[in-house]
Write a structure and sequence with these properties.
The structure is a single chain. This protein is an alpha+beta fold. It has one domain: RRM (RNA recognition motif) domain (Alpha-Beta Plaits, 2-Layer Sandwich). About 25% of the residues lie in helices and about 30% in strands. The chain has a 4-stranded antiparallel β-sheet with strand order 1-2-6-3. A two-stranded antiparallel ribbon has the order 4-5. The longest helix is centred in the middle third of the chain and has 12 residues. The mean pLDDT is about 90.
Length: about 100
Amino acid sequence: MADFNPRDLIDLVRRPIITEKATLLLEKNQYTFEVAPKATKPEIKAAIETLFDVKVLGVSTINPPRKKRRVGKFMGHRALYKRAIVTLAPGDSITLFPEV
């Protein structure tokens, strides 16, 4: 396994995705994150393991298609992003909503 620079790994994971499907996956110990479009599965695995101090069993990635957006007469696209579904080892968890 290759060693990755921890400073570069922090920038790969942008934010957790909280949707109805992502909430249902939490029961299977799977967490969904928005990641950089150029990130690879080994980089995502290393980033999650170093950021949250957990053991990652698998990573699935999805590149959703860009949707067209329009503002008045101007056509454009939504920003491109990549979604990663991370499966954690039994007993590990990530706190998405910390107690205040």
